[in-house]
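ok new one. same drill as before - structure tokens go in, u give me an amino acid for every spot. 247 of them this time. try not to just spam alanines like last time pls lmao
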């Protein structure tokens, strides 16, 4: 059988600060992340078995089914994921407290008969997930949103730009990502945005409330202003995954 090429939406998650926790604690927070993702998919009316799940050690990648509208990877999936991680953190000790970086991208990937997936979209995903704007947003402050996310410009244009339900342009902040040979505009999803998770920041910042400052801000300005961040990401490489063929 020959490989096939398909356009797919991709979501990558990485556990911030996972190093140095020890093997037992790392395994626990990995299980927490996977469970939170599965539960969030169910709450968003998405079937987890339809997604290829790639374990990356301290995180994961999800390869969406070919027919899934890209906007479904944003709303309500990401708020649902944030809610579940926040609930875990309410009862967790410092060693198992969880904060997650996320990135979202889409493009044509290669699917080999043995289950390997690869292609340039995974490279862009990896650069976004490891980008300085996302890391700064995730590490800012000692509390706040448990999920920080970044969208590629391509993903932003084809979801937020089309005005899908729950996705308002004012909720996103532009950021320039530069890593190795990769340089591109991306978009941060930050606390208090209409689609972002609820954040305890001394005031109610529910889903319907717009940010206090309507003017565009850079990633560093955003982190300084809020003390928190929300972002999404993307990866590359050869991965071995289970692929569900619907015929």
């Amino acid at each position: 059988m020959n490989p096939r090429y398909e356009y797919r939406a991709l979501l990558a998650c990485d556990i911030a600060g996972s190093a140095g926790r020890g093997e037992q604690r790392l395994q626990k927070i990995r299980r927490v992340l996977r469970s939170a993702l599965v539960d969030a998919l169910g709450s968003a009316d998405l079937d987890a078995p339809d997604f290829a799940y790639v374990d990356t050690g301290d995180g994961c990648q999800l390869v969406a089914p070919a027919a899934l509208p890209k906007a479904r990877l944003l709303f309500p999936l990401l708020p649902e994921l944030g809610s579940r991680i926040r609930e875990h953190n309410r009862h967790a000790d410092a060693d198992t407290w969880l904060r997650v970086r996320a990135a979202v991208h889409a493009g044509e990937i290669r699917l080999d008969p043995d289950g390997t997936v690869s292609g340039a979209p995974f490279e862009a995903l990896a650069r976004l997930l490891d980008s300085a704007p996302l890391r700064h947003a995730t590490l800012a402050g000692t509390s706040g949103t448990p999920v920080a996310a970044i969208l590629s410009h391509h993903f932003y244009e084809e979801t937020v730009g089309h005005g899908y339900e729950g996705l308002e342009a004012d909720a996103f902040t532009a950021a320039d990502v530069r890593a190795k040979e990769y340089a591109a505009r991306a978009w941060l999803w930050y606390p208090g945005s209409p689609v972002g998770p609820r954040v305890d920041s001394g005031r109610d910042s529910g889903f319907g409330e717009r940010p206090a400052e309507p003017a565009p801000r850079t990633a560093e300005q955003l982190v300084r202003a809020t003390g928190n961040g929300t972002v999404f990401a993307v990866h590359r490489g050869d991965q071995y995954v289970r692929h569900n063929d619907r015929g």
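Residues 194-247 have pLDDT under 50 and may be disordered. and btw The chain is about 30% helix and 25% strand.
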